[in-house]
Amino acid sequence: MGRLLAPAWAGAFIAASALLAASVAVAGDPGHGKSVFNQQCSICHTATKGGPTLVGPNLYGVSGRQAGSLAGYSYSPAMKGAGFAWTDDKLHAWVQSPPAVVPGNKMPYGGLKNPTQVDDLVAYLSSLK
Predict the structure, then answer these.
(1) Which of 72, 74, 67, 70 is nearest to 102 (CA)?
(2) pTM for this structure?
């Protein structure tokens, strides 16, 4: 009976390993993401613990944070009412097109179009904890 379970267990292990490897492959490079942030985002945002609010909110700790909730920043009504937390999926979508994620938000950014830069930027933002 144990021999019959081993192939099923082995197959499940291989499938889970393949999924994990695929997710790691698309996770992005946070080091390069910091460069993308510095080039694309730092004019309006800080990303340091306790950093100031600039034109936009501080993005340190944004991953997992409720949208429109950072104290000390004046969010648009649309962002205050967004009703979601910043997951990697939401950050990916936002970085590519803020108006598509939250219509009526006040961020004047058309979006990042390079998929590698998007992955790297999200990896960087997600690493800020």
Answers:
(1) 67
(2) 0.79
